[in-house]
Design brief:
heterodimer, A: about 120 residues, mainly beta, seven-stranded mixed β-sheet, four-stranded antiparallel β-sheet, 11 strands, B: mainly beta, six-stranded mixed β-sheet, three-stranded antiparallel β-sheet, about 0% helix, about 45% strand
């Protein structure tokens, strides 16, 4: 079974750093792009960026470029999303999701999705 | 950047048909994908490439795409279909790549 399992919920203070993870299993981790999607409380889905674990090729949405860093460790089939200095406005649910079909470029749908990691930033 | 517009809400009686639209400039030239998100859960893909269904998704879910509008149709609606639905395209002409629609809340009366 193809599965993405994300790390647990986090409560942080503004200015702190954070790295959340997404572990893939049941498929060739290096052959599929993995994306990150933000969902702020009561709001819709926003694509943040995507990484190809095979060669770490990474693309960011202009809305999130410079705000977060996406990385992957293919030796442990895990992708990461990290912040160097959190803000209260980063409070949201964050999902990782695998691109639906293996492709050399990002170009299709997301399936499956991880269960989500809730990040709360509050003083 | 490319914008996808959905109606905020759609209400439908059990057993009837729900149609959720997704509007975008010449969206018919793109592949449209649809996700269902129930409260407190992660999104689930229900239709990809305009009209294909992943395994395990009921045939009651179907999609179409033409001109400036894509449509997700849910036939014989059940109470369990109550959820938020999002359309999504991959836009090669912008840096935003993966574009999600604004989302539609489907309420089963």
């Amino acid at each position: 079974e193809v599965q993405l399992v994300q790390s647990g919920a986090e409560v942080k203070k503004p200015g702190e750093s954070l790295k959340i993870s997404c572990k893939g299993s049941g498929y060739s981790f290096t052959s599929y792009w993995i994306g990150w999607v933000r969902q702020m409380p009561g709001k819709g889905l926003e694509w943040m960026g995507i990484i190809y674990p095979g060669d770490s090729d990474t693309r960011y949405s202009p809305s999130f470029q410079g705000q977060v860093t996406i990385s992957a460790d293919k030796s442990i089939s895990t992708a990461y999303l990290q912040w160097s200095s959190l803000k209260a406005s980063d409070t949201a649910m964050y999902y990782c999701a695998r691109q639906g079909i293996a492709a050399p470029r990002p170009n299709n749908w997301f399936d499956p999705w991880g269960q989500g990691t809730l990040v709360t930033v509050s003083s | 950047s490319y914008v996808l517009t959905q109606p905020p809400s759609v209400s439908v009686a059990p057993g009837k048909t729900a149609r959720i639209t997704c509007g975008g400039n010449n969206i018919g030239s793109k592949s449209v994908h649809w996700y269902q998100q129930k409260p407190g859960q992660a999104p689930v893909l229900v239709v990809y490439d305009d009209s294909d269904r992943p395994s395990g998704i009921p045939e009651r879910f179907s999609g179409s795409n033409s001109g400036n509008t894509a449509t997700l149709t849910i036939s014989r609606v059940e109470a369990g279909d109550e959820a938020d639905y999002y359309c999504q395209v991959w836009d090669s002409s912008s840096d935003h790549f993966y574009v999600f629609g604004t989302g539609t809340k489907v309420t089963v009366l």
